[in-house]
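Try it yourself: sequence plus iron/sulfur cluster, in.
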Amino acid sequence: MAPEMELSTHAQTALEQIEKCTSCGLCKDVCPVFALTFREAESPRGKINLLRAVLDAKLESAPETADVFNRCLLCYACQDACPAGVSTEKIWISGRQTIADEAGIPLLKSLFLKQFLTNSSLWKTALKVGAKLPGGDTTIKLKGMRFPRPSQNRLDRILPEVLEPRGKQVGRIAFFPGCMLTEVFPHIGLKAAEILAHLGYEVITPQDRVCCGAPAFNNGDMDTGRKLAQKNLEVYSHMEVDAVISPDATCGGAFRHEYDILFPPGSIGHSEHREFRKKVKDFGEFLLQVFSKRSDVGFKPVENVVSVHDSCHLNHLQHKADVPRKLLSYIPELKQVESPRNELCCGFGGSYSVIFPSESKAIARRKLDFMQSSGGKTFVVGSPGCLWNLRTEAAELALDVSVVHYLELVWYSLIGAAKQTKSPVSKESDSVAD
Ligand code: SF4
Ligand code: SF4
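Structure, out:
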């Protein structure tokens, strides 16, 4: 950064947090990237010192700086571990933008964020092409990168915009499935809506919703992130609903946390976001509220031994790690066992798994080792990103386990068992007719 340059607002945001850091290094103990590489530069403290040097104009922002800064899963374990109350969330997001301001965003990434994410017809075309690219059942491999394979059917083809409640209507829900449940796991997105309808809610899934913006603002493109967030506020904030619900902990976390960074007091969208935020709930958090008040839900037994992974954005971002366990405790005959280091990230990290596939896989394997030691036969996650990474890795290792989103087990107990569906696991091969 040039010495004479004034700090931008986001650079100041990062600096305020950096100044709280005492360099104690306690955050290194919980960082899954540091546990893999043992390189100080890739630890949270190392990245904070790197950004400090950039902001102090001791170091130029360059693509190499961005590369080090990108070696982070945005799991926020470091934030929860920090005794000085440093918001690493603010440092990573504002820092990535500060570095992108000077070093730029690589062309392909920028094209994806600025053109594809914001243009629904380009997005749909790209996904159709992507679904046919080489790779594995769940993965596309391209030029050393790996991506989740889009489904042949997107959620909006199998879920109507308005899903009527079963029986007497008790309320109305705005559903935000997120991109992973829309494009990669539409069967699970459908199950989420079916659970709500089964409980008597009318479920509205607006077809003009867009990505929550996390891939953009997490990669230093705040303008695209804000544009996407504004569109979602336009679509959702004026809806007359009991709650806006997402089963994707990353999207829910973005609505509750990162949108605060996008829409500070006085900015356009601030008041809409405040209204919207009041209605946002994690899918499981909402179900727990319903289950705690009703005795007519009718859970069927599910004989299984499950181990719950604390999905980072449910745990470290929304602080709702107990939600899946409490939900599953309603299901008769379902036994829960704990695995060591439940809080460890699965290695997904959005673009981290795309840019650093071997590191992402190695972190997933370590996680699966811990989970296997619990004796569980089914591993349960709270976010579709974890689902993809752990399910893909478990399949590659031919492990005799299933990896499911907690909502698949709830669906199975409430709806699937009654329909005599064989397994709670949703597979793309449970194909839906075109
Ligand atoms: S734990 Fe907090 S204060 Fe200590 S090095 Fe990490 S960020 Fe800085
Ligand atoms: S967010 Fe996670 S991966 Fe990134 S520095 Fe913190 S602990 Fe490490």
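One thing you can check immediately is this: Residues 21-27, 44-45, 48, 81-82, 84, 86 surround iron/sulfur cluster (ligand 1) (CB under 6 Å).
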